[in-house]
TrEMBL record:
<dbReference type="InterPro" id="IPR027417">
    <property type="entry name" value="P-loop_NTPase"/>
</dbReference>
<comment type="function">
    <text>Catalyzes the phosphorylation of ribose 1,5-bisphosphate to 5-phospho-D-ribosyl alpha-1-diphosphate (PRPP).</text>
</comment>
<dbReference type="GO" id="GO:0005524">
    <property type="term" value="F:ATP binding"/>
</dbReference>
<feature type="binding site">
    <location>
        <begin position="10"/>
        <end position="17"/>
    </location>
    <ligand>
        <name>ATP</name>
    </ligand>
</feature>
<dbReference type="GO" id="GO:0033863">
    <property type="term" value="F:ribose 1,5-bisphosphate phosphokinase activity"/>
</dbReference>
<feature type="domain" description="Guanylate kinase/L-type calcium channel beta subunit">
    <location>
        <begin position="2"/>
        <end position="179"/>
    </location>
</feature>
<keyword id="KW-0547">Nucleotide-binding</keyword>
<comment type="similarity">
    <text>Belongs to the ribose 1,5-bisphosphokinase family.</text>
</comment>
<dbReference type="GO" id="GO:0019634">
    <property type="term" value="P:organic phosphonate metabolic process"/>
</dbReference>
<dbReference type="GO" id="GO:0006015">
    <property type="term" value="P:5-phosphoribose 1-diphosphate biosynthetic process"/>
</dbReference>
<dbReference type="InterPro" id="IPR012699">
    <property type="entry name" value="PhnN"/>
</dbReference>
<keyword id="KW-0808">Transferase</keyword>
<keyword id="KW-0418">Kinase</keyword>
<keyword id="KW-0067">ATP-binding</keyword>
<comment type="pathway">
    <text>Metabolic intermediate biosynthesis; 5-phospho-alpha-D-ribose 1-diphosphate biosynthesis; 5-phospho-alpha-D-ribose 1-diphosphate from D-ribose 5-phosphate (route II): step 3/3.</text>
</comment>
<dbReference type="InterPro" id="IPR008145">
    <property type="entry name" value="GK/Ca_channel_bsu"/>
</dbReference>
<protein>
    <recommendedName>
        <fullName>Ribose 1,5-bisphosphate phosphokinase PhnN</fullName>
        <ecNumber>2.7.4.23</ecNumber>
    </recommendedName>
</protein>
Length: 184
């Protein structure tokens, strides 16, 4: 039996990396592997445990067909290793930290994928983005507006089968909701 691709999406600052770190041991107990992304960001950058590569290295990997999925967002390039196809065929469940903008392409390639949208109260998200200190207030406000539009559209298209995970409260509660979404 083929494994499942679980595609986690959510706005920057929603806590995807924190959720994945907190859920990692419990996911491993269930035989679900978190896929390590390739990103054109230095390996020393704060955030997820991704494989950092230069833009030139990323372009070479992409040209060689090393990625099952790849996209650009926020000035960076992201890739999901092609190895996931073999892992899924072997029956492994895989959780991928994905991209909202790349959702349609992911569903086209992996129609049976389970999509989890990590949401967070706008006020909480604003505070998290300000605390990171990576963007101007104007950029943060634009990001928040874009997030609100995307979430509203996704919810309006309810037939998409997206599972919503609210990460506005304690992280432990979000981990429990994540595990519940994998059981249904």
């Amino acid at each position: 039996m083929a494994g499942r691709l679980i595609y986690l999406i959510g706005p920057s600052g929603s806590g995807k990396d924190s959720l994945l770190d907190a859920a990692r041991p419990r996911l491993a107990e269930r035989g679900c592997r978190i896929v390590r992304r390739v990103i054109t960001r230095s390996a020393e950058a704060v955030g997820e445990a991704a494989q950092g590569v230069s833009p030139a290295q990323f372009a070479t990997l992409e040209a060689e067909g090393a990625f099952a999925l790849s996209w650009q967002a926020n000035g960076l390039s992201y890739g999901i290793p092609k190895d996931i196809d073999a892992w899924l065929a072997a029956g492994d469940d895989l959780l991928v930290n994905g991209s909202r903008a790349h959702l349609a392409q992911t569903r086209e390639r992996y129609p049976a994928s389970r999509v989890l949208l990590l949401t967070v109260d706008q006020a909480v998200l604003r505070q998290r983005l300000i605390a990171r200190g990576r963007e101007s207030l104007a950029d943060i406000e634009e990001r928040l507006a874009r997030n609100a539009r995307f979430t509203a559209q996704l919810i309006a298209d309810d037939a998409t089968g997206v599972f919503l995970l609210d990460n506005s409260g304690p992280l432990e509660h979000t981990v429990e909701r994540l595990l519940h979404c994998l059981d249904v």
